[in-house]
Amino acid sequence: MNINDYKKVTDRLEISERCREEVLNMRKGTGKIKHKMSKKAVALIAAAVMTVGAGTAAVAANHFGVFDRLSGKKDRTITLDNGVEAKIDKFDNNNYEIIGQHAQDVTAAAQSEELSVNVESVYCDGSNLIVALTGSLADGNPSGIISLNFNCDITIDGETYSVNALEGWSQNYLRLYGNMVLDEGETNSFTGSISLTLQTGEKIENPTTADIRLYNISCGYKYVMDNAVYLDSEVNLTVDVVPEPELVQECYASMSENGFEAKIYEVSPSGITIGSKYPRFYDTNTETVTWYEGENLLEGPKYSVGAQWFDENGNRIELLDLRELPDYGDGFNTGILASTDSSTITVKWFNKQTQGTGDKELLYEYTFTLPE
After folding, report:
1. What gap in Å lies between CA 133 and CA 69, rounded to an integer?
2. Cα–Cα distances in angstroms (integers) from residue 281 to residues 6, 333, 352, in the given order
3. 210 contacts: CB under 8 Å, gap ≥ 6
């Protein structure tokens, strides 16, 4: 297919009627996915909690507290030795504020001689399992450990999802990642999570348990894991899981203009599955450009195209860090965005070949509008 063929592709496919109805239901509050909680609603909930007794109030505060701490961990930054400011955990882009609104309170605990771990809350939509963790070191952390990183295996209904490709164990997942970070202002209180995203089409369909094994637990004195030491023992937890598949809304919104195409496959509190394409011309074009970086003359292809997604305020929506990308068999470049409460999502295709200027050329953009 040449560039003239692509120029003929100008039909725009609007958001499907089923998607429109589902989104309208979400926005009206009749669906399960609620991305925002108004201050008035928070005040009413707080008032209700105050009237039902101190014990219930303590449980509710604990539930919201763990996800508040996870949100705080996600936003915290450090200054590296080279002076660059970086996220504490660059791999964790979960939107815990939204996820926490749909999590279930769960009580589970386990400990080794060196580490105690508690599960306080679990989110499961059938495709994604996110387990909120808290922990503390048995020795009180006198050496000032800041981060706890670990390998993780999760066994659900007889199938083990593992970061290690051992014989007979499944790697049938898109994402399996977790860690814990010292709470701000604390000396021995860690908060973290484990995120499991199954392969496209795979589901946890019925209430079950997840057997979680944490091992190769490394303790970092810096967030960048300088001088890491390893604990000798592992921690094993069993967590109740009740999937809520209704949290995942299939929403096949799509567009096609001038050879640029984009789709939104699914929307859930855990993320937004998207896909994109661009005209093949940009890959087959053989033009080259030259530019200087300092005194060095460099040469490269004229085009290197990539798509990025933005919310209604122009802020880039981060992609979740995946081991493999979702596969719908349609040839689209796919990914999963962090969940957002934005009313619009804009996809922009850029020429990443900046030719030494640092400015990316905007090739095309399209905005998906979610009606109120």
Report:
1. 10
2. 9, 16, 15
3. 129, 131, 154, 155, 156, 238, 239, 241
